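TL;DR need structure tokens for one chain.
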Amino acid sequence: METENLQQESGTITNELIEPGKNIKVRAIMSCPNCSYRKSFKNTFHRSDIETMVVSLKVFDWLSCPSCGEMLKMTLEFEI
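>> reply
TL;DR here they are.
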């Protein structure tokens, strides 16, 4: 009986995460202004985890190019 309740609860949690409008999809595109380096990262954050998203973006903002050492330019794309 407990396992049935647990399965029902976990199903509710899963449905909430998939439900549109509750997640923010973010794509960060890192590019070097001096050379041809370009890399893209994707992640999905739940609306309640906005603080986690901000911390992640602050870390990305300080990345440097592995080829020439120049600070990378970060472009963000959001799907809300």
